[in-house]
């Protein structure tokens, strides 16, 4: 199947959102975790770095996955590429 302008636009937007979400993932996983030890203050009775590593990062990962799924569904529908928009031929 040859690529149309619709496919190229869809792929371009897909790459853009993927790059942005990967950048967020990188910052949360490596940058903030690297500097978390310097954030030495008490947060709910424990060190903030513990709370960030134990609860904050996994929460951000879930939000990233949920946002990606929602955004890709909307993007597929916008470009007419959703699964239910396809011909069963």
Record the SSE blueprint.
Blueprint (H helix, E strand, L loop, with lengths): L4 H31 L6 E2 L2 E2 H31 L11
Antiparallel strand pairs: 1-2
Helix pairs in contact: 1-2
Radius of gyration: 19 Å
Uncertain regions spanning at least 5 consecutive residues? none
Q: Name the overall outline.
A: elongated
Number of domains: 1
Helices and strands, in order, run as: HEEH
Q: What proportion of the residues form beta strands (DSSP E)?
A: under 5%
Distance between the termini: 14 Å
Structural class by SSE content: mainly alpha
Count of strand segments: 2
Task: Describe this protein with a few key phrases.
about 90 residues, mainly alpha
Structure notes:
This protein is mostly helical and 89 residues long. It has one domain. 70% of the residues lie in helices and 4% in strands. The chain contains two helices and two strands. It has helices spanning 5-35, 48-78, and strands at 42-43, 46-47. A two-stranded antiparallel ribbon has the order 1-2. Strand 1 (42-43) and strand 2 form a beta hairpin. Helix 1 packs antiparallel against helix 2. The longest helix has 31 residues, at 5-35. The protein is elongated. It starts with a helix and ends in an 11-residue tail after the last helix. The mean pLDDT is 86.
